Amino acid sequence: MHPNCNYNESMGWTRPRLLVYKNEWFDASLDHEGPACYEIGTGGPRGGNIEWHYVGETVNEKKRMSRYGGNGSHLSKMINYHLRQRWHIYYHACACPSKEAAKRMQDNLLGRWEYDWNHVGN
């Protein structure tokens, strides 16, 4: 399990959720429409050995995760590269009381861990 799972500013991390594989987008699992800190990673078909590559924060988790399904995201090239390598894309999130709390959590994680898809803060 990722060491970041021990960090809990508010409600705790969700279990890893499959976000995309090949051309299939798993948006039915997007259920939180409030502020959150989240991580995006790659793993195997059953969710094993997930490597978390990116940490972010948002005022609306559902809308932010939906953006990663299209080509409008700043992570599109990285996501598409890993999909071509047959990786599954996962995310998990921690609901926060405010966008500011989510940003604090993101900044704390960026200060503690190396995320290879984050260009700022590492």
| Integer-rounded radius of gyration | 13 Å
Reading off the top of the CATH hierarchy, the class is best stated as Alpha Beta
Q: Which CATH-level-2 architecture?
A: 3-Layer(aba) Sandwich
Biggest β-sheet strands, sense, barrel: 5 strands, antiparallel
Structural class: alpha+beta
Number of helices: 3
CATH topology: GIY-YIG endonuclease
State the low-pLDDT regions, or none.
1-10
Beta-strand content bin: 25-35%
Distance between the termini: 21 Å
- Mean pLDDT over the residues: 84
Give, in order, the helices and strands.
EEEEHHEH
Structure summary, number of beta strands: 5
Main sheet strand line-up: 2-1-5-3-4
What is the helical fraction, as a range of percent?
10-25%
Work out the count of structural domains: 1
The shape, in one word, is globular
Characteristic terms for this protein:
122 residues; alpha+beta; GIY-YIG endonuclease; 5 strands; 25% helix; disordered N terminus
